[in-house]
Sequence to fold (236 residues):
Amino acid sequence: MLELKNLTVRYGKHLAVDDVSLNVGQSEIVVVLGANGAGKSSTLKAVAGMVPASAGEVRMGGATLTGVAAHKLTAAGLALVPEGRGVVGQMTVEENLRLGATPTRARPAEEDTLAQVFEIFPKLAERRTQLVRTMSGGEQQMVAVGRAMMSKPDFLLLDEPSLGLAPIVVGDLFRALARVRETGVGLLIVEQNVKISLRHADRGYLLEAGRIIGSGTADELMTDNAVQNSFLGGAA
Ligand SMILES: Nc1ncnc2c1ncn2[C@@H]1O[C@H](COP(=O)(O)OP(=O)(O)OP(=O)(O)O)[C@@H](O)[C@H]1O
Fold:
């Protein structure tokens, strides 16, 4: 279980994440929905050790992660797919994927994990020798997810994976994320794309001005008034 307990992030006087508590189980896709500036990225960055939490706690498998450096978190089993993907354009698909296998826990299994990534993303297997900068946005996002998988995470954090992608590509990506879930990984995804993420998530939370204002199963949220009003223009 990945747990955020009363997590708070401040930038100077600005309260970006306000007392957020949520959890993600193994083999579960949990989505945090929120508009621009709601605090989604700040929440993920605090979990990933990229911004300090000013209060609260992050726990994984019962151990406290708060205050642990970002690279140590990867070694502990937490991987982040950042907004903008962070792939290396002048390297091939396979080289990018292998970059993810740096934690000690990942190295002995590198070949098996690579085979698993190619099974989840068959397109990447076809294009293993292609330079990543020549690929589409959706394909690059798949490389970024695959690279995070190479670290053999227990939990995967994804910052707006659908951003800038065509709807059909977003569908492919979320179907692949559902296959990642089948491997036992828990996924925490922050998204503005409500419809597609709720279609594939198990549960979700609504974030507004840094606070959780609602939560439920994906089915419950799909028909929730706050979701309808805030994100879907009131059309049920
Ligand atoms: N480094 C920073 N310094 C100061 N304020 C920041 C910083 N990063 C974010 N903020 C502010 O904190 C709030 C939450 O930002 P955050 O990026 O977490 O939101 P978000 O929901 O991810 O939005 P977006 O979809 O635009 O990335 C916003 O008001 C933003 O302007």
